[in-house]
């Protein structure tokens, strides 16, 4: 009854996140507990060598997702959703959506998945002395300039997916600082785009004679907690096609999936971080100070509050490991044994903990695709051993778990050895951590830091953006986002914490020497074996 009353009175907050394959909505109560959910499956399209989603895809997906959430409210609480305390939108970071002065999209949405801006990335990284990944919005804009694309002269505004949806629902051309940090480099002191780099970009493209300056076509940067506009009458009809939702709802700054992941794992405070490990793996470490120089292996972004974050992203994590587990599953079926898949994973993962700390001299690479951290454009999964290696099931499973984090550790070692970056707490989430304790223990050894897994980590980015909207609505004067999350969201959350074992740490370091030396074998495989 209390929840029903909260829904009727609008004492709720809605978060919606656009993932690469699923759009998810989460409605939360005043204590940030999910009370209703909705979802919508969608897929990107590969058209004219571009990965994209159409505008029809975007709005059909948003409306379908909202409708399912609203139906969940009606079914569960017997009331129609008309009022909401605040709303937040999040999406896949990066990409490129340019519009003319009439608000018309000039070219199809170019998502983060497009690796078509290599030339622009190299030029801008050198010009700014700041790493500009290919997927960043500014790289897409400059590549379009280098390509001589006709539409560039007509650009009046460009933004990301989350920024676009927010703009259409509120009329405000704004962006959360975490999402902004995937568009153009951020000055964390000013909490805005780097002024010097904006000037450098204008000077770079001046000979083209475009009628715009870069400042004029970028969205306004906002930090967590700031008001970012209200839902207009037109926006309410766009979001809720039933016409039941009332206009006037405040919105928080639109954010990217990296920022909402930090919020959902309570990893926004300095010296904390989170690692998402599944098909791919990435680590986000919140820094105490800026890095001394740029590294091609490290992307620099920010938290939703504007603190510097070093991001290490590896394309390959558990795919090859899963394939080996699938092989054991085939063997079990062949001898007539029926084994539950979860039990099989649990048994094999736990077996790894019985192995030698350095994997007994075994070596593996799970490179199904290329790996930019170790400078591979293609990959070949490999397993290698010497005649003197200790070849056992425990060591075999352990080396496949170690190597799932090998490329990631290569990037993390740059931060620890060259920049002295230290972390007090790491939050793990994703498939690698489904078997309790095992993935955590391996990651703790790789990072030489405590690793925790929280019950709420599975709530995901839609919950994360709902937390950011709740913060805007509920924060006290001077209350930081980190303090708000600590005291009012995660104070009673349960987490399993694993401390690094000194022998495991030493064993992982020994393995990494073998891993680095063996990259020559991986390169030979790429060169010698056609895919």
Description:
This protein is an alpha/beta fold. Helix content is 39%, strand content 18%. The strands form 7 sheets. It has a 7-stranded mixed beta sheet with strand order 16-17-15-14-20-21-22, with helices on both faces. It is globular. The termini are far apart.
What is the topology?
Elements: H1 2-9, E1 13-18, E2 22-28, E3 34-41, E4 45-47, E5 50-52, H2 55-77, E6 86-91, E7 97-99, H3 118-128, H4 137-146, E8 157-159, H5 161-170, E9 174-176, H6 177-180, E10 186-187, E11 192-193, H7 195-205, H8 214-217, E12 220-222, H9 233-239, E13 255-256, H10 257-264, E14 272-277, E15 281-286, E16 299-302, E17 308-314, H11 319-334, H12 341-352, E18 363-365, E19 382-384, H13 393-404, H14 406-419, E20 425-429, H15 438-447, E21 451-454, H16 461-474, H17 481-488, E22 495-498, H18 502-517, H19 519-528
Parallel strand pairs: 1-6, 6-13, 9-12, 14-20, 20-21
Antiparallel strand pairs: 1-2, 2-3, 4-5, 7-8, 10-11, 14-15, 15-17, 16-17, 18-19, 21-22
Overall spatial form: globular
Question: Which consecutive residue ranges, at least 5 long each, have pLDDT under 50?
Answer: none
Give the integer mean of the pLDDT values.
Answer: 95
Number of strands: 22
How big a fraction of the residues is strand?
A: 15-25%
Strands across the major sheet, in which order?
A: 16-17-15-14-20-21-22
Helical residues, percent: 25-40%
As a whole number of angstroms, the C-alpha radius of gyration is 24 Å
Which oligomerization state do the chains in this entry correspond to? single chain
Straight-line distance between termini = 60 Å
GO molecular function: kinase activity
Family: Belongs to the FGGY kinase family.
Keywords: Kinase, Transferase
Protein name: FGGY-family carbohydrate kinase
